[in-house]
Amino acid sequence: MTENKKQEAMKDSGMRQFGTILNFELKGCLLNKANIIFTVILIVIIAAVTFFPRIRQTIDGGGKSEKSSVEASDSDAPIMLIHSDTPENGQLILENFTAAFSNYRVMLTEQNMDEIQEQILAEEAECAFVMDGLTSYDYYVKDFSMQDNNTAIADELLGNVYSVSAMVRAGMTAQDASAALSAQVEHEIVNLGKDQVQNFFYTYIMIFALYMVILLYGQMIATNVAMEKSSRAMELLITSAKPVSMMFGKVIASCLAGFVQLIAVFGSGLLFFRINQEYWNDNQLISSIFDMPVWLLVYMLIFFVLGFLIYAFLYGAIGSTVSKLEDINSAVMPITMLFIAAFFITMMALANGTVDSVLMKICSYVPFTSPMAMFTRLAMSTVSFYEIAASIVILIISAIGIGVISAKIYRVGVLLYGTKFKIRTLLDAAKKA
After folding, report:
1. Range of 19-23, 236-240, 347-351, 366-370 with top mean pLDDT
2. Which sign, positive or negative, has the C-alpha torsion 337, 342, 346, 349?
């Protein structure tokens, strides 16, 4: 009975230690000035992007009624001149160009070439089409812009006009000829699997979010552990708290801080989008990003948390083996390179559309790559629930196992002063603990 009470007391003591360390580390992460500044900058950028259409419309006079804005745009629109070889062709071209170039005031002119050029150079007209029949013309403009696609529109339009004219001359009515050329082919996509086009953006965002958070907070964990060790504070901490409580407290605090940061960034993005949603209705890409399915969001959170824990434990363990802060970057380089390799494997498969390749299937069950690989596969292709469950179970077991091993390394790392970090040192530390 006494032994049971001792075990319960030790368990309660360990939980109190874990809670104290978690609270202390979480405050440190949330109040970190660099993280606060970085988060604020991201929120400001998101706000600038999401509010841009509203601001632009306000500057352009978006407060006016639709009718008055249309009338203003018609009166202020630049002039496009049409010079035709025959009055019949000129009238036909005018009718079609007026409908196609709605952002111009299209006008017929009988001026000669010198007068047309002078009018364009004086910026009284923006451009001119000098027609030589329906299939040949000269396009006059003062400064030809890379965004000027007037000739491309005119080529397609004149081709249709010429075809209609030829059909009319052959005996068809103008209505029948126009109907024959404007026939629309209808189709409907029946998707039996995943919509890769839409899910691509969700996957892309998740992978980059995981990439940024792990590199940012992983480096922070390693640096904080190394600072405690260099200041000899770790030696005092290790005598009053269990290594497991300290390691798990630090890592879970960093994980929670990362979540708070992500919620702040993505939450503000969602809020700003909802405020300005009416200005983004025509942009299917932006709208689709904020319509993520719930099931995909749940999987994203699961793989995000487990992937973060695995790498955070590794960063913390390696940080405990470093005696000097200047050695941190070289010490964590193997872990960083491993994570970057997982990132590039997943991004290459995502870009090439080979998310179900043999390499990606293998990576879906390797703890260091599965947070990205398996999430990409389940988002972009059809993966059975058993495969997803197996990957998650492996990740959970690996996260717990790596956490316990990292705690042992953390305990032994307190005494490693002046020892240059090596992989073998890491393994020996785990065996001695």
Report:
1. 366-370
2. positive
